[in-house]
Structure formats: C-alpha cells, structure tokens
Amino acid sequence: MIVGVPKEIKDNEYRAGMVPTSVLELTHHGHQVIVQSGLGEGIGLNDDDYRAAGAQIVATASEVFEQAEMIVKVKEPQPQEIAMLKKGQVLFTYLHLAPDLPQTEGLMKSGVTAIAYETIYTPDGVLPLLAPMSEVAGRLAVQAGASCLEKDNGGAGILLGGVPGVDSAHVLIIGGGIVGENAAYIAKGMGAQVTILDKSVPRLRELDNNFAGRVHCVFSNKASIEKYALEADLVIGAVLVAGAAAPRLLTRDIISRMKPGSVVVDVAIDQGGCFETSRPTTHSDPTFVVDGVVHYCVANMPGVVPRTSSFGLNNATLPYILLLADEGWQQALAKDEGFMAGLNVHAGHVCCKAVAQAHGLNYSEPTQFLI
C-alpha cells in the first residue's frame, strides 16, 4: 500500500502523523511511504531522517494526497485538505466529528473512508489511540491553568502551590478518566489542593487509592459541581463521551459566580466543550474572558509539545496503521469490533452512531461495508 503523511496545517500544530521509526516498520512490511518535505521540522527531525527510514520525500501536500492510498495525519483535515481527498482513499487521524458538521459533510462528499483515532476501543473499553494524547493534555492543562492564574495573563495572581503560610490554589477536575488523573498528578505535585469529580464510584475508589487519599474524590452531580466550582481557583474540564459531543456541565450561571480571576481549562473542547461558555481557541490566541473568568480552550493542546506527543502517539497508532496497510481497511476492521468502531464515514455514509445523532444524519451500520 502507498501511505502518505502530509504536514499538519492547523494553527500551531507541529506534531507528525508518522515518525521515522514508524516509516521503517511500514517499509519493512513492503509498503511505500510518501512524506511531505518538512514533516519532522516541528519535532527536531529532518527529511534525511525520513529518507534513511525508507520514505519518499515530496514537496507538497497535494502530491501526498494525489499518490497515497491511505493518508495518516494527527489532526482533523482542514477544508483545503478535505478538498484533496478522493473516493476510495483511507484517512486515518483524529476527527472529532460530533461538534463539526462542516467537516462531516465535507468527508461525506469526498467519498473517503475516514477512520477516527478517538473512537477505536479495546476489549476492556480503553480508547488506546486517545489515551496518549489524553495523558499529555491532562498534564498540560495544569501547566496552562497555572500560567493563566498569573496576573499578567488575566488571572487572580495566585501561585498554584502557594508558599509556607499562604494557602495554595484550589483545583477542581471534572472527570476522573485519563485526562483527569494526569491533571491531578501534576496539580498535586505542584502543591495544589485537588478535588476530582466523577460519576463512577468504583473509579473514585480507584483514584482515592492511587493518590493515597491525598486528592479529594467526590461523586459528580449538579450540586457538587456548583459547590466545588465556586470554591475553585482553577477548574479543568476532563469529561468524555466517546465519539459524541461533550456534555455541558459547567453552566454560564455558575461561571458568572466564580471567583474573579479564576481560570477554566476545557480539555473537552475538541468534542464541543464541557463548559457552557467555551469556544475553541488556538495556541496563538489561547484565552478569552467571560464574567471575569479566564477561559483556556485550545483544541489541540498536545500540539505545543509536539516531540513528546508525536512519539507517544506513534507508539499507539503504529500497530493499527500496519494492520490497515497489510490487510486493507475492510479486512482489518472486520477482525476487530473495537477497530471497526473507528469507522466514522465511508463513501458518503456516516458509520458512527454518535456522530449521526449529533447532526441528525442517517446512520449506516459499518458491518455492511466490510468483507
């Protein structure tokens, strides 16, 4: 199979869909890999590194899209990239279609087979291709929040960990999954007072055990969200409903009553956001203020640490890329129900129920398109 990897063009996105070690594995399996020149610049690599792994270097993204049978990316295709996709081509990347009707319609019109990293799951319910970026985003959320709390950045002028004799910041994390646990790990390490809210009592028990009781683990409901948000200096939104739009858990009313200069970081923004006042921002313009509360809602948070993120992501995606290339998408997906769940769009059909429901589109059962 001919596999193509274009450079990312989303605002301040420097991650690479494939690193040279992944290219080497594919070429070892007999596949051809076409890489756009400069793909590795953001992660400290150059074209020669990719050539040494067996890649063919081309100058433009259009050459990649024209020649490749499968396109491997990191972020969702931008409008100019959607225009280059074609019927029969496989697109393997993060899509986050539930809050994005224009992208969904563009992929449907293109006729492409679009497989999303974020909806693939394993037999134990883990989202293996979302997990590494969730780890990065959770850890970054605290760093970003701590910076936003600084007075020069619009915050209340609070040091997250405080100092002896001065209270440390109160951090509320809504959602106790991978993002939430990693956020708590960093926030607690920086000396903050941390509360995690989650709807799963078994998960709360697990988190309480993991943190040896040093993090306050509380059942999530409307009352607890309001109580702890009003006490918090920093709120991190870390909820996820796989493939679907994120629930809006922090209302405008609560936001309006939070402490002046407090900060909210919405890690769920690429699925529409879990705060009512959220809207997507970029690394070049990351924050805005609503009712005196600083909002950080960057939709590609891990893109700011592209080297760590690219290698972490490739460790997870490579086995799936190899399966698609070795066996073809139909046979690869037919063998694995969790892999099949990654099929979001095929030949104009929406094959992810959550995406179809979000946009009021017809849902097509993916099994009908498999071998």
Fold blueprint:
Elements: E1 2-5, H1 20-28, E2 32-36, H2 47-52, E3 56-58, H3 61-67, E4 70-72, H4 79-82, E5 90-93, H5 101-110, E6 113-116, H6 131-148, E7 170-174, H7 178-189, E8 193-198, H8 201-210, E9 216-219, H9 222-231, E10 234-237, H10 252-257, E11 263-266, E12 287-290, E13 293-296, H11 306-327, H12 329-334, H13 337-340, E14 343-346, E15 349-350, H14 353-359
Parallel strand pairs: 1-2, 1-4, 2-3, 4-5, 5-6, 7-8, 7-10, 8-9, 10-11, 11-13
Antiparallel strand pairs: 6-14, 12-13, 14-15
List keywords for this structure.
371 residues, alpha/beta, Rossmann fold, 2 domains, 8-stranded mixed β-sheet, 7-stranded mixed β-sheet, 35% helix
Q: Mind explaining what this structure looks like?
A:
- With 371 residues, this protein is an alpha/beta fold.
- It folds into two domains: 183 residues, NAD(P)-binding Rossmann-like Domain (Rossmann fold, 3-Layer(aba) Sandwich), CATH 3.40.50; 174 residues, 3-Layer(aba) Sandwich (Rossmann fold).
- 35% of the residues lie in helices and 16% in strands.
- The strands form two sheets. It has an eight-stranded mixed sheet with strand order 3-2-1-4-5-6-14-15, sandwiched between helices. A seven-stranded mixed sheet has the order 9-8-7-10-11-13-12, sandwiched between helices.
- Helix 6 crosses helix 7.
- The longest helix has 22 residues.
- The chain is globular.
- The mean pLDDT is 96.
